[in-house]
Amino acid sequence: LKLPSDSFKYLSWCDIEEHDVRGNQLHCPRVREGPSKEELFFRGEEHTLKKRKQVTDTEKWQKKLQENWENCAELNLSFQDLGDLYQMENFKRILQRLIRVEKLWLVDNSMTDLSAIRLPRCRELNVNKNHFTSFKQLPKMPQIQHLSLAENNIMTLSGISDFRHTPLESLILKRNPCEFQERYRQL
Questions:
Q1: What is the pTM of this model?
Q2: Looking at the keywords, is Repeat present (predicted)?
Q3: How confident is the model at residue 49 (pLDDT cuts 50, 70, 90)?
């Protein structure tokens, strides 16, 4: 049974035509890309694929302006189901544009390394339930005050000294292997 919304189920908000919503107006947008043509064919859902037309440079620029990630101050990009490499690449492209974000939630996105990302104004970051194994894999955040890394795979506290020059007030490391390290709390 096809529902009227079936043709939209793999579209991100900025791919839907005839609206003027900007990225900084959304608190929890869907940004991951849908499955490839081949994947949809194997699922028997090729009817949900929007016919793709040649995208002009003007249309690319309009999409970039519509996304408006540069002006986001608070954003929740959790639970994006980033199972494929191309989805993670698009996700990192968006993260690189978050130059004014102050509060960012990236919970449960299967992320392993964001070390190439810089979040210059980020004061609060929640990356719970990902696959980080080290503090070195986190983005550069010179203004970070609250960092939540619960339920990752942080083995040791090496690299934590990088936060000495930040205004870090709280760090949550619940359910990480480093909790079992001797003198964990002191360190």
A1: 0.80
A2: yes
A3: low
